[in-house]
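Hi F.,

I've been meaning to write this up properly since the lab meeting, where we talked about keeping a consistent format for the predictions we share between groups. The idea is simple: the sequence comes first, exactly as it goes in, then the structure tokens exactly as they come out, then a line or two of notes. No screenshots and no reformatting. I'm using this chain as the first example so we have something concrete to point to.
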Amino acid sequence: MAKLNVNGSVREFQAEGDTPLLWVIREQLGLTGTKYGCGIAQCGACAVHIDGVVTRSCVRPVSSVRANQKIVTIEGLSRDGSHPVQKAWAALDVPQCGYCQCGMIMAAAALLKTTPNPTDADIDQTMTNICRCGTYNRVRAAIKVVAAGGDTKTAALAIQHTDGSTT
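Output, unedited:
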């Protein structure tokens, strides 16, 4: 049995070496937050962190990941949705269909870890994930909220919620 360090736990799996990491994560480890989108590393729905670096797992052969490397999936980013990026996503109603959002959140979290106060150019260069619903302005605003310490008023979006409140 081969082993991977996923979300802080060493997990055993059995797969051919050329099996994409995505399928081991989803099918063998049961962590289905990481999504299959395109299968060619273009959309980013399959994004995970490997030793802190965003990696598109749909094209990464599982044999290329060493047992001592630390993989973090969306489930490992925060067990209860309390990561600042997840909180900003919820506060600004970023997702519409939500399919791409796990990959977007993983990319945004990695960006903010390396660049705590990103410019628009930094965001554009890093956030290459595809969102079919086109929520890119809200993604940018959520990243800026996290960079500003969580103040949704700095996001430059006046979102009217169904309860009448504004963020």
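Notes:
DSSP finds six helices and five strands in the chain.
The first strand starts at residue 2 and ends at 6.

If this format works for you, I'll send the rest the same way.

G.
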